[in-house]
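task queued by scheduler; priority normal; single chain, no ligands, no partner chains; default sampling; output format set to structure tokens
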Amino acid sequence: MISVPVPADLSLQIDRALEEDIGSGDLTAALIPAAAAGRATVITREAAILCGIPYVEAVFARLDPQVRIDWNAGEGAAVAADQALFEIEGPSRALLTGERTALNFLQLLSGTATAAHAYVERLEGTACRLLDTRKTLPGLRTAQKYAVRVGGGQNHRIGLFDGILIKENHIMAAGSIARAVAAARATSTAVPVEVEVERMDELEQAIAAGADIALLDDFSPEAMADAVALNRKSKRPLKLEASGGVTLDTVRNIADTGVDFISVGSITKHVRAIDLSMRFD
């Protein structure tokens, strides 16, 4: 079972999700007698990395504390197609009302963790680490970044507030890489300063300016290898991150160039929900 701290805003996300689904009340669940109790099983239709247990539990706890959930697999576990993930029992109205919201979280987060894990597997045996990006579903960033960690990846900056990434437009506005990095150092020394570079001469400028990380944007594997060699010869080597058009077919070759990180936006942006089903007994 993976031990990853849950996001601080989990409760808020649950409240918002239930509010948008229930609104003024679940009209269909109200057809069921209030005293009725039920039991159901949730299965996965496909293999996946299970992720979202805290979200499912929070949904039903919010609806009715009498609901009980028995999990057959832990957070971060690899599950097989047609495997029963959990059994749930309690007041039927609560089970029916919470079904969609709970499964939405579980499907999305399991899909994100599964996608991240597929890349992490390709990196096994290297020192390179998988990073996510800010290309997340609006309102669900912390949840998806949690799922990336459950899948074995690492988080890049959470938002614009916890890291500096100087990109092409920042460089143009500042006047040069050196000026942008100097301004970053003058503004904050507590967060890493990363510079996106598109050419070898820009990497040289980022090294000379004293950046912490250089993001190699759309470098070919051959150019990445050259960048790694150049960086290693410098007096103050940077961490190198590769990004742009990375796929499962190319990620290992990129890692073999010697870069420290590979960031992949598709694991959160193009995520496909895992197919789950809840069946009442």
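post-processing summary
- The mean pLDDT is 96.
- Residues 9 and 97 are 22 Å apart (CA to CA).
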